[in-house]
Design a protein that fits this description.
Layout (H helix, E strand, L loop, with lengths): L17 E9 L6 E2 L4 E4 L4 E7 L3
Antiparallel strand pairs: 1-4, 2-3, 3-4
């Protein structure tokens, strides 16, 4: 598999109003981790996704 680091996540996998990129890492846990603005989730293959809202 090719490295997905910093590649955009397809829009059909992201909720409206959000942008997301692949971190290039495999998820070490299930579920989501949230920050004040961003959160980290994973796709079905276990690839970490960094997601943030586009509107403030």
């Amino acid at each position: 598999m090719t490295n997905k680091r910093n590649r955009l996540v397809p829009y059909d996998m992201v909720s409206p109003g959000f942008e997301a990129i692949y971190t290039g890492e495999k998820s070490s846990s299930e579920g989501e981790k949230e920050d004040i603005i961003t959160n980290i989730a994973s796709d079905n293959e276990g690839n970490e996704i960094l997601r943030w809202p586009v509107f403030s």
